Amino acid sequence: MTIVDHDDWWEWRAPGARAAFTSREVGDVRSDGAARARAAALLDLDPGRVAAISQVHGADVWVDLGTGDGLPAEVRWDARAAAAEGDPIEADALITTRPGVALAIVVADCLPIAITWGDAVAAVHAGWRSLDGGVVEAALAALRRRAGSSVALADAGPFAVVGPALCVDCFEVGEEVAARFAASAVVRRPEWPRPHLDARTDAARRLAEAGCAVEHVNVCTRCDPRLFSHRGDGPATGRQAVLVRR
């Protein structure tokens, strides 16, 4: 596996898959169609070949059961599927086995995760609610069912990459949130009035427990000015994306 920092986006290369993590320079992929086109082009696609859904901080998984070239209109990125309003499909992970189709998740502090296993790839949106709700485990279970024969799996993953997200220094939470997570993911320091959540460590643990080889684009969305941040900029900020394809 390889991660390449292109300054205005990050590229992940794994056996049988590629992923792109975008930045402010690419644009606000939630509301700007031109930005979505630029993001898709990073993986040599147009937005009509990218699937996205309405993210709701849950643990449901959308599985692409299609076999042809076309995506359903309700998930096509060029049909405003990246916008929260009006999208009837709600989930926080997507899976496909089709080559030449990318999956997109949009974020502004939550963890964007790309996974490849056998003949399948997944994109996962993992904020603290989704992590606590089991989105990583749900995505991996669905991915395993779609990944192909045991012979293929023996030589092909699972491999995962966790992209830019809020770092532990910036991720203050309440005691009620901290209590939901393993002690290894909760950090307390004398100078902090409240606990902080190390969501990256928690997600990596969940992935590793499922046998994933895990890599990181270890960049904080709030600390790095190249990235949109809900906590840093406020709720009206834009969104970057992870896109993954076979």
Key phrases:
246 residues; alpha+beta; CNF1/YfiH-like putative cysteine hydrolases; 6-stranded mixed sheet
Explain this structure.
The model is unreliable at 81-85 (pLDDT under 50). By secondary structure, this protein is α+β, with helices and mostly antiparallel strands. It has helices at residues 33-41, 128-133, 135-146, 150-154, 175-178, 199-209, 230-233; strands at 2-5, 9-14, 17-22, 50-51, 61-63, 93-96, 102-107, 111-117, 120-126, 159-162, 186-187, 196-197, 213-216, 240-245. It has a single domain, classed as 4-Layer Sandwich (CNF1/YfiH-like putative cysteine hydrolases). A hairpin with an 8-residue loop joins strand 11 (186-187) and strand 12 (196-197). It contains seven helices and 14 strands. The protein has a six-stranded mixed beta sheet, with no helix packed on it.
